[in-house]
């Protein structure tokens, strides 16, 4: 099984793409993943790199993103919740954001959220142009700067679509991470009979998953929600392009997030029943010979006695499996009583 892709994307450094977009959905939040970006996990024996993180809070309060005690010089917080257009002393957030990227020190710039920034700027095109220019500056730093954007809008948002358009230079090296509820996996497996990889076929799953996840706001996931649904379990849909993808130009992966750390989607407690039941069906299929997708109400398997009886049925051929001796070719014709063969008038039977 391939190694997890999410830790590589979240870890600061040269391997991290210059643009990371975290998207929350109606049934799952990407805030726990955003907290990991702000506070990267330090492994044992690793030396903490001198890197600054600048966080602009336009939607969630700073307390929702990290426990800030004011003594950490590596995190710079900008609380802009009260900075509202046409209300009080409003200041354009673009000025402070531009200033943050002018520091030569390696910087991770976090903006929460895209929707609030667009509301403050007042225009989708102006917001898209501003963020595109930021991404270009981040690319020119050769990995020293990373821009992390959090959004709560849908994947069909015009602003999000413009940032992910493949024709833009920054979109050639980007990671788009979408948080989903495990109940959506349960819904797809129950309603469409399509479990996620590695149990289900990868192409078939993505063909069902992408349109269903795009309209998940209209789906009542409580119908198929498991009573044992873990509160901290999140299914993470990862789309990477360019250097962020390790194997090909575009890579799509489904991973999990539980207890504040990345994991395989098969390790999520909320999906344990789906994978265990599907594994049992596959094991039964290997012995019965019935395809796993043949979900029928009657028995298709044969007992040992039935298999022996079937093997004893003679084949419906004259030679009974033995090769026929070679013979010369011949045409045998038995004239019919209605035949009217007249060489003088061959079309007589046509009644012309």
UniProtKB/TrEMBL annotation:
Residues 336-352 have a biased composition (Acidic residues). Keywords: Cytoplasm, Nucleus, tRNA processing. Pathway: tRNA modification; 5-methoxycarbonylmethyl-2-thiouridine-tRNA biosynthesis. It comes from Schizophyllum amplum. Belongs to the ELP5 family. This is Elongator complex protein 5. InterPro entries: Elp5. The keyword Lipoprotein does not apply. One of its GO terms (molecular function) is tRNA binding. Residues 317-352 are annotated as: Disordered. GO terms for cellular component: cytosol; elongator holoenzyme complex; nucleus. Pfam families: Elong_Iki1 (PF10483). It is found in: Cytoplasm; Nucleus. One of its GO terms (biological process) is tRNA wobble uridine modification.
């Amino acid at each position: 099984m391939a190694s997890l892709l999410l830790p590589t994307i979240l870890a600061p450094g040269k391997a991290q793409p210059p643009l990371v977009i975290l998207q929350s959905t109606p049934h799952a939040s990407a805030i726990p993943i955003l907290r990991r970006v702000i506070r990267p996990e330090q492994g044992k024996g690793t030396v903490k790199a001198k890197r600054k993180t600048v966080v602009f809070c336009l939607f969630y309060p700073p307390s929702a993103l990290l426990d800030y005690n004011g003594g950490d010089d590596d995190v710079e917080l900008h609380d802009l919740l009260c900075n509202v257009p046409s209300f009080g002393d409003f200041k354009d957030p673009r000025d402070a954001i531009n200033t943050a990227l002018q520091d030569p020190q390696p910087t991770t710039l976090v903006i929460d959220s895209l929707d609030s920034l667009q509301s403050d700027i007042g225009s989708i095109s102006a917001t898209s142009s501003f963020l595109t220019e930021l991404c270009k500056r981040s690319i020119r730093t050769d990995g020293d700067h990373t821009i992390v954007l959090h959004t709560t809008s849908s994947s069909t948002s015009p602003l999000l679509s413009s940032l992910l358009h493949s024709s833009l230079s920054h979109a050639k090296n980007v990671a788009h991470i979408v948080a989903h509820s495990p109940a959506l996996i349960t819904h797809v497996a129950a309603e469409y009979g399509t479990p996620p990889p590695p149990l289900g076929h990868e192409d078939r799953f993505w063909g069902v998953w992408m349109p269903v996840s795009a309209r998940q706001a209209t789906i009542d996931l409580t119908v198929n929600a498991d009573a044992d649904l873990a509160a901290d379990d999140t299914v993470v849909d990862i789309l990477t392009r360019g250097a962020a993808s390790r194997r090909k130009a575009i890579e799509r992966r489904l991973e999990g997030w539980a207890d504040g750390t990345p994991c395989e989607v098969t390790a999520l407690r909320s999906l344990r029943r789906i994978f265990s039941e599907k594994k049992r069906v596959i094991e039964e299929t290997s012995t019965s010979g019935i395809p796993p997708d043949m979900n029928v109400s009657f028995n298709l398997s044969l007992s040992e006695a039935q298999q022996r009886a079937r093997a004893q049925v003679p084949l419906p051929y004259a030679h009974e499996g033995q090769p026929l001796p070679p013979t010369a070719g011949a045409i045998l014709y038995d004239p019919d009583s209605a035949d009217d063969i007249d060489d003088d008038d061959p079309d007589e039977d046509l009644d012309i």
